[in-house]
Amino acid sequence: MAAEQQVRAGRAKRLPRAVRERQILDAAVDVFSRLGFHAASMDEISEVAGISKPMLYAYLGSKEELFTACTRRESARLMEAIATGVEVDRAADVQLWTGLRAFFGFVGEHRASWLVLHRQATSQGGPFAAELAELRGRAIGLVAELVARAAVEAGVPGTGERDAESMAAALVGAGESLADWWLDHPDEPSGVVAARLMNLVWMGFGDLVDGRVWHPGSPE
Amino acid sequence: MAAEQQVRAGRAKRLPRAVRERQILDAAVDVFSRLGFHAASMDEISEVAGISKPMLYAYLGSKEELFTACTRRESARLMEAIATGVEVDRAADVQLWTGLRAFFGFVGEHRASWLVLHRQATSQGGPFAAELAELRGRAIGLVAELVARAAVEAGVPGTGERDAESMAAALVGAGESLADWWLDHPDEPSGVVAARLMNLVWMGFGDLVDGRVWHPGSPE
Q1: Whereabouts does the entry annotate DNA binding, in residue ranges (chains A, B) (predicted)?
Q2: Please, what is the angle between helix B126-154 and helix B63-85, to 10°?
Q3: I need a labelling partner for B103 at 20 to 30 A (CA). Which of A63, A216, B60, B171 fits?
Q4: Any alpha helices (H) in A86-189, and if so which ranges?
C-alpha cells in the first residue's frame, strides 16, 4: 500500500502542468454543467479531478477564475471545431452546411461544454456575460467573413460589410438559440437539428412553404 | 411659493397609483438603460421620476424589484406590439414581415426598453436572466404557433410540433441577436434591419446568392 502510494505520488509529481490543468478543467466543466456556478463547490471539483483543494487553487485560482478558464477553453475548442469543420474552398451552401454540422456536432458531443459556455455563463452575468459577448463577437466576425466571401464569389451586388455583419449576427443568434432549445430536447439527432437551421437560412421559409427543401446531396 | 407648493402637493396626492408607477418605471428604464443595473442609484431614479425616495421604495420596492418590474413591463409592451403588428389573416410572408416590422419598430422606438430587457438583464444574470429566459420561451411559443399555422395553410407535409418550435427558436434567436447588433449600429433604419432578417429567413441565402430578394411588394 505504502509503496503504491509512493508510486502514485511519484507519478502525480511527474505529470506536466498542462496535463494537470486539463484534468482540473475537465472536472470543473463537468461539475459546473451539472450544478451551475453557485451550487458547484471547489470540494466537489477537487474530488472529481482527483486533486487536492490547495493544488486546485494553486493551479487555477478561485472558483470565479476557474469558471472563466472553463469558458475560455470551451469557447476556443468550439471555434476550433468550426474552423476545422468548414470546408472553405467549396460552394457557399457546402461551406454553410459543413459549418453548421461542425457547430451542432460539437454541441452534441460536448453538451457539458455548451451548458457551461452558454447557459451557465448567461445565467451568471457579470464578467462571464462579458466573456460570452466577446465570444459572440468573434463568431459573428468569422461568419461575416464567410458570408462576404460567398457573396463576392456568387457575384451578389451591393453586399456591404454591414449586410454581411448583420446577416452573420442573425445567423449566430439563430444557431445559439437553436442549440439552447436542443439542450431541452436532447433526443433529437445532431444532423436533424443542423438540417433545420440549414433549411431555414439557406432555403428560407418561402421555399419551405413551397415544398422545396435542402438536402446534403442537393445539386447546387 | 407656499401656495404653489400646496397646489403641487395637492396635485401629487391626487395622482392615481397607476400613473405614479408609470412615472417611476419610465424613469427607471431611462436610468437603467444609461447606467446599467449596478451603477444606477435609487437617488437618481427618484430624481428623474420627480418622486421622493421613500415614495419610490413604497411603490415598487428595492432596486432589484424595480428592475424586475421594468423588465416585466417592457417585455409585456414588446409582446403586445408584436401581437398587434402581426397581420395574422394574411399570407405567411406578410405575417412574418409584419411581425418583424413590429419587433424592429418597437426596438427602434424604445431602445432604452430593449437595452434594459436584453442587454442589462443578460449582463446581470441571476433572476433577471431567468425572467429573460421566460420571455424568450413565450416568444418562441408564439412564433411556433404562427409557423405551424402557416405550414398547415401552405400544406407543407410533415411539419411536426418540434419542427415548428425549433424553427421558432432559431428565428427568435436571430431577431434577438440582430437587434443586439443594431444597438451598436443605431444609424441603420428600422426597415433595413427588418428587411435583412426577412430576406434571410424567408428567401434564405440560397435565393440571395442567386440574386432573388424579398421586397414588401413582391408577389407571393
Answers
A1: 41-60
A2: 10
A3: B60
A4: 92-109, 111-114, 121-124, 126-154, 161-183
Distance CA B15, CA B38 (A): 30
Q: How far is B1 from chain A (nearest CA, A)?
A: 48
**CA neighbours within 13 Å on the CB side: how many for A137?**
7
List of chain A residues whose C-beta atoms are within 8 Å of the C-beta of residue B93: 205-206
**Best CATH choice for the domain A68-220 from the list 1.10.357.10, 3.40.50.2000, 1.20.1420.30, 3.90.190.20:** 1.10.357.10
Mean per-residue pLDDT, B6-18: 63
Domain ranges across chain A: 1-61, 68-220
B96 vs A93: CA distance, rounded Å: 24
Question: Check: CATH 3.30.70.100 for B70-220?
Answer: no
Query: Is the pLDDT confidence value at A92 over 90?
Result: no
Neighbours of B133 (CB within 10 A): 14
Residues of chain A in contact with residue B136, where contact means CB-CB under 8 angstroms, are 177
Would an 8 Å CB–CB cutoff place A150 in contact with chain B?
yes
Tell me the DSSP string of B183-206.
HT-TTS-HHHHHHHHHIIIIIHHH
Q: What does the alpha-carbon distance between residue A112 and residue B92 come to, in Å, rounded to a whole number?
A: 38
Taking 70 as the threshold, does the pLDDT of residue A13 lie above it? no
User: Which residue in B174, B209, B206 sits closest to A210, CA to CA?
Assistant: B206
What integer pLDDT is reported at residue B124 of this predicted model? 75
Between these two residues, B9 and B196, which has the higher pLDDT value?
B196
Q: Please state which of the ranges A166-180, A198-212, B134-148 shows the lowest mean pLDDT.
A: A198-212
Classify domain A1-61 by CATH architecture. Orthogonal Bundle (1.10)
Size of interface A-B (CB pairs under 8 A): 169
According to the model, what pLDDT value does residue B217 have? 62
Residues contacting residue A69 through CB under 8 Å, at least 6 positions apart = A25, A28, A60, A61
Best B163, B187, B200 residue to mutate vs chain A (most A CBs within 10 Å) = B200
CA B174 to chain centre: 14
Q: Which of A156, A169, A211 sits opposite B177 (nearest CB)?
A: A169
Q: Do A163 and B126 touch (CB under 8 A)?
A: no
Which three cell numbers mark B74?
417592457
What integer pLDDT is reported at residue A217 of this predicted model?
A: 62
Q: Give the best-scoring range by mean pLDDT among A37-41, B14-18, B130-134.
A: A37-41
More confident residue, B214 or A95: A95
